[in-house]
UniProtKB/TrEMBL annotation:
Alphabetically ordered keywords of this record: Coiled coil, Kinase, Phosphoprotein, Transferase
Protein known as: histidine kinase
UniProt source species: Belliella pelovolcani
Chain ranges passing through the membrane: none
Gene Ontology molecular function: phosphorelay sensor kinase activity
All residue ranges annotated as the Histidine kinase domain in the record: 41-253
Domain of life the protein comes from: Bacteria
Coiled coil: 7-38
Full protein segment contained here: 327 to 579 of 579
Length: 253
């Protein structure tokens, strides 16, 4: 075969591969859209019956609490706790389906203030776990306030949650300035993540750790990734198992 025929054959193969790839990308985009619609519709429909369960459990406790034995109190507690966890899943699913779709206005945001607000909002759990924070200095940027707040809260919540009592309870936040963007880093000294899961944890419902020990829905990082994608940024993790993790995301200057 001549060189020319060989080249034509190769080009044809590349073209066919490209067409196949485009088709797969379209299919993936469609299934993602369907998943988002499913999440949105179902989370709305699930909220009402759940509200009823919680409300009737409260009434049962209030009106008949005095005549119920210890076992019955325990059952009410389990049911109420199950309802609370389900509510969190529904709220996170709603958040997941909304994330990245709403075009928010870009306003001036001082990330130091956002961080200070977080500490006030979560002061109870911060005190309980005796967590210390160090802010190495954050910039002011132009950005979408709701999406940015949620991303930062989600990463800080995880840093607090996956720091156990006997580990150095230290969480550090810092920013590195690049030519046209900042890299924000949230560093903990908690339980850490095995390198083989670095990409996987940003996918919806991926949870690595003992579900009994760590409450969660497996949606926080998927939501954060959608937000960061929406402003054209990147999000990633570096971690050593048993030593701690650093989560990074980028945002334009
Ligand atoms: P979850 O609600 O389970 O925390 P996320 O989507 O926020 O869900 O995180 C996905 C998984 O990634 C978690 O279940 C946990 O296993 C792991 N993970 C996230 N952040 C950290 C962290 N700072 N340290 C260790 N593991 C983490």
């Amino acid at each position: 075969m001549t060189d020319i025929t060989e080249r034509i054959k190769q080009e044809q193969a590349v073209k066919e591969l490209n067409i196949k790839l485009q088709k797969h990308i379209k299919e993936l985009e469609l299934s993602n859209e369907q998943l988002e619609q499913f999440a949105f519709i179902n989370s709305h429909d699930l909220q009402e019956p759940l509200r009823m369960i919680t409300s009737f459990m409260n009434q049962l406790q209030r009106k008949y609490g005095g005549v119920l034995d210890e076992k019955a109190h325990q059952y009410i507690h389990f049911a109420t706790d199950g309802a609370r966890r389900m509510k969190q899943i529904i709220l996170d699913l709603l958040e997941y389906s909304r994330a990245g779709n709403a075009m928010e206005d870009q306003i001036e945001i001082d990330l130091n203030e956002l961080f200070a607000q977080y500490k006030i909002l979560r002061r109870k759990v911060i005190q309980e776990k005796d967590v210390q924070f160090i802010n190495h200095g954050l910039p002011k940027i132009m950005g979408p306030i709701a999406a940015l707040t949620q991303t930062l809260h989600s990463l800080l919540d995880n840093a607090v949650k996956y720091t156990k009592q006997n580990e150095p309870p230290l969480i550090e936040i810092s920013a590195q300035e690049e030519s046209d963007h900042y890299i924000i880093q949230i560093k903990d000294h908690g339980i850490g993540i095995d390198a083989k899961f670095f990409d996987k944890i940003f996918i919806i419902f991926q949870r690595l750790h003992d579900k009994e020990q760590f409450d969660g829905t497996g949606l926080g990082l998927a939501v954060a990734k959608k937000h960061v994608d929406s402003w054209g940024g990147k999000i990633w993790v570096e971690s050593t198992l048993g030593k701690g993790s650093s989560f990074y995301f980028t945002i334009k200057k």
